[in-house]
Every structure is written in structure tokens, then in C-alpha cells.
Specification:
globular, two-stranded antiparallel sheet, 9 helices, single chain, alpha/beta
Length: about 250
């Protein structure tokens, strides 16, 4: 039997600077049965030319700019794999990321999704900026990766949970993971760092400080909506608590 096909979806908006490295890290995976889909969210730079350089190895889809959630959904609609993974255009995967995750699905037939730990790293030109964040908790050597870049999931889980919320300008991955947990998805987190998230000029606030008031408001909106969905039932009972594996973040389901 052939191993399951994994659809690797790369949402991108004006990402020509780092996109080639991201795609190279997918093509370097030791798990070989892959399809690679770039979902271009209306880029106006050289993104299309970068993708064209990979020839038939990468499928290229484009849409008018509609945000990261819509770009992920664009790739998801075209995905043909039994499993789905996402990699942002400025991030990198460890070569064994997908192989190690797929091994867990083979060992646990009940598993719905698997994530890994993530490590943030700075671009060279921000070395001075990096010193100001020394000791920041999100710069720890390993961070539980409840983000799309660290996810490998069965395609059928999206049929149950739904796609990403295009009404959110940010935090669509947090929103989706909360919905998955509320639907009783079986999750596992690997202890290894298998995703490397690049910190550069345009993503520092969301990635580290979250000082942007709009983004903070969106995150609070997502968390409040999740809590509202888990209000006590009409019969007065309260659902049993759950905890995202390895995160120390307990919610109710």
C-alpha cells in the first residue's frame, strides 16, 4: 500500500523574500508522498516567479487579497491528501517533521491531529532588536506549537470542525484549535522542536509582545466565543475539563 498523501499548504502574501526557503524545507522532508500547494493571497511582489521556479513540484493558486484564513482555506479546498499540513511562507520545517508526526498516526489510530514544539529565531538584521527580548518566554528553546505551522491533521477533521474563520484578521489558528477541542478531537504534541518560526520586521508584535490592540482584541474575542460555546447546559451540568497536551492551558469542553 502507498503511504498516505500529505497536502502541504503554504499561504503567502508578498512573501518572495523567504518563500523559496520555506518550499525547500518542504521538499527536504524525509516523508516523501507530498503535494505542495502555494495559496497566494493577492501578492504584488515576485511571489509568483519564486513559485514558478519549482515547476511542476508546486501547485500555485491565487486569489484577491482576503487575509490569511482565506488563503489557508483556498489551499484546503484544493488539497487532495488524506492529511493536511501548513507552513507559513517565512518559516521552516525540520526535515523529519512530517515523518515523525505520521509515525504517531500510525501508532495511534484514534489520533485526529498532531502538533510539535516550535522555536522562534531572528533574522540577522534584527540582532540588536533581539537583545531587547532576551529572556522573553516566547523565545524559550521549545514552545508548544498550537499554531498552523506545527499542525498535521487528518483531512476529515475539517469536515467536522470546519475551515478557518475568514472573519478574523488574526488568530484564526487559535480559533480553529479551540473548535477542534470542543468537538472532542484527539490531540498529541511531540516534545521535539520541528518548526522554526522566523521573527522579522512585520511579525514581531504578534509573535512576541502582542501589543497591537487590534490583535489583542481579536484574541479576546476568540477566547470569549469559545467560553460562550461552553456555557453550562440547560440541565445544569457542566462539561468535563480538558487540557491541550503539553500546553498547561486548561479549557472546558
Amino acid at each position: 500500500m502507498k503511504p498516505p498523501l500529505i497536502s502541504c499548504i503554504v499561504p503567502v502574501f508578498n512573501g518572495e523574500r523567504y518563500l523559496r526557503e520555506a518550499l525547500d524545507s518542504i521538499r527536504a522532508q524525509t516523508y516523501r508522498r507530498l503535494e505542495i500547494i502555494v495559496a497566494d493571497d493577492g501578492s504584488t511582489d515576485g511571489t509568483a516567479a519564486v513559485v514558478a521556479g519549482f515547476g511542476e513540484h508546486v501547485r500555485y493558486l491565487t486569489q484577491p487579497n482576503a487575509g490569511p484564513a482565506a488563503a489557508r482555506n483556498l489551499g484546503l479546498r484544493a488539497a487532495q491528501g488524506d492529511f493536511v499540513a501548513f507552513l507559513d511562507a517565512d518559516d521552516l520545517w525540520h526535515p523529519e517533521k512530517l515523518a515523525r508526526q505520521m509515525a504517531r498516526f500510525q501508532a495511534r489510530l484514534d489520533l485526529d491531529l498532531c502538533v510539535t514544539h516550535v522555536q522562534n529565531f531572528w533574522v540577522a538584521e534584527l540582532a540588536g532588536e533581539a537583545s531587547g527580548y532576551r529572556g522573553h518566554p516566547r523565545l524559550a528553546p521549545a514552545i508548544p506549537g498550537y499554531v498552523c505551522q506545527a499542525l498535521l491533521t487528518r483531512r476529515t477533521l475539517f469536515d467536522m470542525v470546519g475551515a478557518f474563520n475568514t472573519g478574523l484578521p488574526a488568530g484564526e489558528d487559535t480559533d480553529w484549535f479551540l473548535h477542534a477541542a470542543e468537538h472532542g478531537a484527539v490531540m498529541e504534541i511531540l516534545p521535539e522542536v520541528l518548526v522554526y518560526r522566523r521573527l522579522h520586521q512585520t511579525n514581531i508584535s504578534w509573535g512576541l509582545t502582542r501589543v497591537n490592540s487590534r490583535e489583542r482584541d481579536v484574541l479576546l474575542q476568540v477566547l470569549k466565543a469559545s467560553l460562550d460555546r461552553r456555557r453550562p447546559r440547560r440541565d445544569g451540568s457542566v462539561a468535563a475539563p480538558y487540557q491541550f497536551p503539553g500546553s498547561g492551558w486548561q479549557q472546558k469542553r
